[in-house]
Amino acid sequence: MTRIVVTGIGLQAASGRTAAESWRSIMDGRSGIAPTTVVPTDGLISSMGGQVWGLPASPSKYVDRCHQLAMDAAREALEDSGVPADRGIRFAISLGTSLGGARSGQDFHDQWIRSGLRSANTGLLRHYPLHSVADQLASTFGLFGPRSVQSNACAAGAVAIAYAVELIELGTSDFVLAGGVDPLALLSFGGFSCLGALDHLSCAPYTRSSGLNLGEGAGFLVLETEQSALARGAVIHAEIAGYGLSADAHHATAPDPNGRGAVRAMESALEMAGLSASDIDYVNGHGTGTPANDSVERKVITHLRPGPPPPISSTKSMIGHTLGAAGAVEAVVSVLALMNQQIPPTHVPDGVEVPEGIDIVAGAGRDEELSTVVSNSFAFGGNNASLVIRARPTEPVAASSPRRGVVITGIGAIAGSAAKTADVRRHFQDSVPVFGSETVELEHFGTFVTAEIPSAALTAGINPQHLRRMDTLGRRAAIAAAQLLTRRKLTRDEATATGLFSATGTGPISTIEAFERELLETGTGNTRLFPNTVMNAAAGHVALLNKLQGPTATISAGGTSGISALHFASALIARGAADRIIVVAADESPAAMLAGYARIPGYLARTDSVPFGHSGRLLGGAGVAILLEGEGLAPTESVLGRLAGFGLTGDGSGAARLSEGSGAWARSFSLALADAGIGENDVDAIISAACGRDQIDQVEREALNLAGLATVPLTAPKSVFGDAGAASALLGVLQALWMGEDGRVPGSRVNPINAPSSLVSADGLDGDVSRTLVSSYEVGGSYQSVLVERTAQ
Question: Where is the Ketosynthase family 3 (KS3) domain (predicted)?
């Protein structure tokens, strides 16, 4: 195994504007929690929060507070690392966030409600998507490698660091800027207030445990191999020795009271690091201050090993709960603990008793000889993530085990009017659109056709008792997974160990809009809606319905999310950290989503989707599930194909733009072929990401030319399915498998004059289709492709 080290750190928190300033404040036990001034809290149960003070005024009204926090912490980490600026295409970004530019989205929504959609400023939405934070970082700092956004609620920052480890292990990148960011926002304040989870005083984790305080901040690490760091003379701060991910499959918001999922995450992280619980010197705990979380974590720590438990403390007691940033912020604090050989404390308010039987390092920090630190993050949806961080060890690196092959053994899908997997296949084969019946009416802008799923189709195969707790995004993910598991049946033990990786381009837009609208109009949030506003809620429902307790992650990076999820899941299976993982993608296109695009001339299609034909984007909805397994674990007849190669790249277009030409997209194609060990002439077909928006479609066309793929038969399935966000790329994988089975490339439903000459006509093309390249992109400058190889039966 490669030793992966930390050579740069950056931190923004209520404790300080730099890592060093924050460390001094934290070690002194000074709480930065106070009444917030950046969120309207009238009518909520608490105004207390961990606010970052002294943040300079934004140079533009369109730069969200989230992006400001991320930029400052990332700049500090990059400067600390000293990585040369010319390493951009080998420098990845792995970001964790729960809210992203939610504050900008709230401002747009407020204007819409108060003054009508025509008066709302769509410029505010440039920084609303979660991936826009990563796009801004890439553009500002010249980081043009793979780009991914993890959004597992409060575990997102830790999961982002986990994926960074895999990017370096696989050789996909030489350096990764890994971390997390979240701002204080009304969405989160209103949500936790309606749940009764906020403390009106300063929170007191592990002691009074009467509620949490929300915080804001950003934490970033620069990761690279030890060999790389030594070769360039960098200062090595610590090692990321292992990580573990797990799902409780217990409840949408509450942790498993027995803490079994948390224990599995910690044990997996220790196993990856080659360590045991007896090696832990300190645990930087999740420590939110809520009764359920604190009691479970105390139980886990006290039963982790024989004898006295390791000391544990909560950084959140001084900076608040920074949600998607928490795992990354606390990883930076853990690195600082190792650098300074000190344990940070838990702030205990005056008059609050300190519990016996567990060392929470109360009051002030202490000097301690530290070698191994575990940082825990537990989240809504029962998502658990643990990191093992070590001082730089002296023993030789253990030899890596051979990576095993990964195969596709099950599929399921629902898209538009196609309610079952067989229906989806038939629509693709016959080039018959799944849209036409579902429309969205927007005030002042008229009617738009969408490829949405009719609500009547979103109940099949879901336990009725659970159905009422699910929103539309969760239902389409659950239906796709149920169809997959009907075909590829797993034993109870197999299902329990199975992981679940989720991809969503924009998340539960309709649920967020409904919750926020009620909050803005009445000042009170809806307790039924709020748990489904997090990006990983859909995956949580799927895990609970099917008792899936293996590794879990949720990627929300726009249209490239599906291929990112496949890449991350494949890495775990190849390494032996999981035997099987279901990758599920789901997206929707409600009125709230179309509202953000309606004012852009020609952006949205009115009636039809014509890739390469200037129709505009026809947005849709879908749910797609793909089962990945380690080679040799599934019956031979279940093997459908494999993911033979990935190409993950980016450019500097910047948030809400696609302006840097076609070079990065072409590079993603070439990297996928190189990863698969084949050349351009070995590709039998290409599934295009073309969507009908000329500024996008022509960039892809030029990229195919640059990569030497201009003559390969090309199909544009968004003419049939519309643009279903993250689900589009996974639909492309299914289509690649079906083409290989049928020996035919179905034609695009339209063949406009200005389309590439290789675009297959409406009649289709017969021939042997064994290797298919699936293309995806996201505005902002992220491009990902995967080479799908059909298995001969």
Answer: 1-391, 403-790
Domain ranges of the chain: 4-390, 406-790
Structure tokens at 713: 């038969």
Q: Is 66 tagged catalytic?
A: no
Please tell me if the domain spanning 4-390 has the same topology as the one spanning 406-790: yes
Half-sphere exposure of 12 (CA within 13 A, CB side): 30
User: What CA–CA distance (Å, rounded) separates 33 from 409?
Assistant: 50
Whether 154 sits among the annotated catalytic residues: the reply is yes
Length of the chain in residues, anyone? 793
Strand-pairing partners, residue 379, are 383
What are the tens digits of pLDDT across the range 84-142? 888 889 999 999 999 999 999 999 999 999 999 999 999 999 999 999 999 999 999 99
Cα gap 40→109, rounded to integer Å: 15
Active-site position among 67, 237, 250, 286? 286
Report the distance separating Cα 344 and Cα 64, nearest Å: 31
Per-residue buried b or exposed e for 565-580, using 16+ beta carbons within 10 Å of the residue's own CB: bbbbbbbbbbbebbbb
How far apart (Å, rounded) are the C-alpha atoms in residues 558 and 556? 6
Catalytic choice (127, 131, 250, 321): 321
CATH level 3 topology of 406-790? Peroxisomal Thiolase; Chain A, domain 1 (3.40.47)
Given the candidates 3.40.50.2300, 3.40.47.10, 2.40.40.10, 3.90.550.10, the CATH classification of the domain at 4-390 is 3.40.47.10
Q: Which two tokens stand for residue 162?
A: 């986990």
d(CA 432, CA 748): 10
Amino acid at 354: V
Q: Which of 66, 67, 131, 154 is catalytic?
A: 154
What is the Cα–Cα distance from 357 to 428, expressed in whole angstroms? 62
Angle at 84 between CA 80 and CA 88, to 5 degrees: 110
Whole-model pTM?
0.98
What is the C-alpha separation between 554 and 545, in angstroms, rounded? 17
What is the CB neighbour count within 10 angstroms for residue 84? 10
Neighbours of 56 (CB within 10 A): 8
Percent of the chain with pLDDT over 90: 90
Q: What's the chain's average pLDDT?
A: 95
Residues contacting residue 655 through CB under 8 Å, at least 6 positions apart: 67, 126, 127, 132, 133, 135, 136, 139, 780
Characterize the bridge pairing of strands 641-650 and 406-415. antiparallel
303 among known catalytic residues: no
- Amino acid (1-letter code) at residue 73: A
Give the three-class secondary structure for 332: helix
